[in-house]
Amino acid sequence: MFRALFKLILLLIILVAVGGFFLGWWHGGVPQSERDALATAGREGAARAREAGADLSAKAAVVAKDAKEALGDGALTAKIKAKMALDDTVKALDLNVDTTNGIVTVTGKVRSAAERERALALARETEGVQKVIDKTTLDGPR
Questions:
Q1: What region, left, alpha or beta, does residue 37 occupy, with left being phi > 0 and alpha being psi -120 to 50 degrees?
Q2: What is the per-residue pLDDT across 29-55, written as a single tens digit (0 to 9) for each?
Q3: What's the number of domains the chain is made of?
Q4: Which CATH number do you get for residue 47?
Q5: In a 10 Å sphere around its CB, with 0-12 CB exposed, 13-18 middle and 19+ buried, how is residue 86 labelled?
């Protein structure tokens, strides 16, 4: 009889504990108010993380745009210098070509007005060039 009573008491304790757990009376030792605070902090943290991600995304887009422009300017400069190097009337080694946002500046010494005009024409006819600035000086024949 003692054993039966002991088993009944043990079964009752287990049922109360399981019922209490499933009804939310015991939840890992954390009171409901603290669980609510943790849930709120988690939502606020997620919102801050989304905002930070959006900020980083915007900054990355700006950097990517700047890099694309810089690479585009470098490509324009390379195209123009290649055209000048392949042209027999232009001495490309004496000329410097700089490109910023599609605006090309040609500097250096030319031997004649015809060479100047040809160098500037090569720059103007390159796709992507918006404007050509002439800063060449006439050096005369060598």
A1: alpha
A2: 556 666 666 667 667 777 778 888 888
A3: 1
A4: 3.30.300
A5: exposed
